[in-house]
Each structure stands twice: as C-alpha cells, then as structure tokens.
C-alpha cells in the first residue's frame, strides 16, 4: 500500500487497498454477516471517488470476509433512513456513484450475496462466485421492492416472466443459475477464487485504460438514462414502503431474531 493510501482502510468493518491497478473494497463484518451500515456506505462512496480520480486504479473489486459476501443492508439502517429523504441516504448515493463509475467493476463472491449485495451485481462488469453460493432477493418477504435498478436490469437480462418469478416466487438463485441468467461470469472453487480473480483482472488492467473506459461507456450508453430513472423511482417506492405496518412488523421481527441469536 502506498504512503498516500495509508488511511484507505478506514474502520475494521470495511477494508481497502490498491494492488496491481485494482482497488479492492472488502466487507469485513463477518460476525454480522458483512451487513452494510450507513457509515460503510459513506466510506465506499469516498473510495469510489478516489478510484475514479486515481489514474493508477484501473479496476474496482468488491469482496467479502468470512463465509458470506454480504447480507445486504444492516437492518438498523432502515430505521435511520426514515428521517432522511430517499435521495439523501448514503445507500442511494452509493447506488448512483457505482452505477456511474467509469472504470470496470468486479465482484468476488466468497459466499451468499443478499439484498443490495445481490442487486449491486447488476452494476458489476465481472462477477465470480464460489460454487453453490446464492444470490438472494429477500425484498418481497420484507414487504419491500428490489432496488438498484433491478426493475430495469432483470427484465432486460431474463425477460419479464422470469424476472417476476425470480423476485416474487424463487426470491433468489444459485451462482450456477446466475451464470445461465447472465448475472455471474464463472464459478470458482473457494481456495482458487482470489488467484483466479486476480488473473482475470490482470488481463483487463493490462489493456489501454482509455479504450476500456470508452468500451464501458458505449456499452452502457443506451441504458444509462433508464438506469438512473429506475434507481430513483425504486428508491422512492422503497422509502414509502418502509412506513407501512407490514414492513415495520417484519423489520421488528428481524431485529428481535438478530438480538436473540
């Protein structure tokens, strides 16, 4: 790690470093299933900004510590968010910044990706996962709607009927099914995941950064406006639903279960 990156790691809940032109952001709350707090979102937003400005960074990689990639939103964040406008929430700003990030983004799933941990994969250019891990969309169970432009990306990837089944009936899929759906690139044995991802990304970072960024811009140009609109519309609906009795009851039950466990 370079001297000017000495403060990148931040709190123990979120680790970051730069190596071989790749900035790795690692969720590091394994005892809390790597659930993402507002403070973690704020740190990620800062790191995405640094990665955008730093010409030595050619790729952004998300990873997790322990047996899970991330359980998604820390449930405490839902209560905190009620006092904020939907577009003031750190989670919303994170979604906008990642969706607009100009350089390649990769994810290395060491385990299940839940909630926003699954929907953020739609904004990753490369996704590698250990066998049998799951992408979990728990929103319907909680009385909420999927976010992060899921309503735009999923029908585009799999068609409306399969998207409805994935979100409302199955509420998730395996990594292997994710490959067939176009969400995951490859599955890799856990003991080989880090080395495999490093090798794959080395092939990307060796290319012309300008050509890579322009390729990504052109590939996303036709959907960029629609994705931005979807992120905002979903965030508004999500925020409104947080006030419903159904959601309040479900969140209270989840908090009680967490406290008891």
Describe this structure in words.
With about 260 residues, this protein is α/β, with parallel strands linked by helices. The chain has one domain (about 5-190, about 210-260): Alpha-Beta Complex (2-enoyl-CoA Hydratase, Chain A, domain 1). The protein contains twelve helices and nine strands. It has helices spanning about 40-55, 75-80, 90-100, 115-120, 140, 150-160, 160-170, 175-180, 195-205, 210-220, 225-240, 245-260, and strands spanning about 15-20, 20-25, 60-65, 105-110, 115, 125-130, 135, 170-175, 185. The strands form two sheets. The chain has a six-stranded mixed sheet, with helices on both faces. A three-stranded mixed sheet has the order 5-7-8. Mean pLDDT is about 95; it is low at about 1-5.
Spell out the key features of this protein:
261 residues; 2-enoyl-CoA Hydratase, Chain A, domain 1; 49% helix; disordered N terminus
Which helices and strands occur, and which strands form pairs?
Blueprint: E1 14-19, E2 22-27, H1 38-53, E3 59-64, H2 76-81, H3 90-100, E4 105-109, E5 113-114, H4 116-119, E6 126-129, E7 134-136, H5 139-142, H6 150-158, H7 160-170, E8 172-174, H8 175-181, E9 186-187, H9 193-205, H10 209-221, H11 224-241, H12 245-260
Parallel strand pairs: 2-3, 3-4, 4-6, 5-7, 6-9
Antiparallel strand pairs: 1-2, 7-8
